[in-house]
């Protein structure tokens, strides 16, 4: 399991819809998002966080967007 790892990510933003992760890089390897399986919001202190559970060909990942500093992190991943 990997926690709190900053990632490079491509996301599509559309009016009146949630952001849609398209791909992300981890350890210099690109992973294409096949599906967003779940989405939820929470806060750490006053910082809003948006969580995306996504699948790739390799595994299930949790991608987290920090609304305050506009950063993306990988919080967990599990082999399917």
Core attributes:
three-stranded antiparallel β-sheet, mainly beta, 80 residues
Write up this protein.
The chain has 80 residues and is mostly beta strands. The chain has one domain (5-79). Helices cover 0% and strands 68% of the residues. The protein has strands at 5-6, 8-12, 20-26, 29-32, 35-44, 47-55, 59-66, 71-79. The strands form two sheets. It has a five-stranded antiparallel β-sheet with strand order 1-8-7-6-5, with no helix packed on it. The protein is globular. The two termini are 13 Å apart.
How would you summarize what this structure contains?
The chain is mainly beta.
What layout of secondary structure does this protein have?
Blueprint: E1 5-6, E2 8-12, E3 20-26, E4 29-32, E5 35-44, E6 47-55, E7 59-66, E8 71-79
Antiparallel strand pairs: 1-8, 2-3, 3-4, 5-6, 6-7, 7-8
């Amino acid at each position: 399991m990997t926690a709190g790892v900053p990632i490079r990510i491509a996301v599509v933003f559309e009016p009146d819809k949630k952001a849609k992760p398209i791909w992300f890089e981890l350890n210099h390897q690109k992973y294409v998002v096949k599906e967003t399986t779940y989405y939820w919001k929470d806060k750490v202190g006053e910082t809003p966080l948006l969580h995306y559970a996504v699948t790739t060909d390799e595994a299930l990942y949790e991608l987290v967007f920090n609304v305050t500093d506009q950063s993306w992190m990988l919080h967990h991943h599990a082999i399917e």
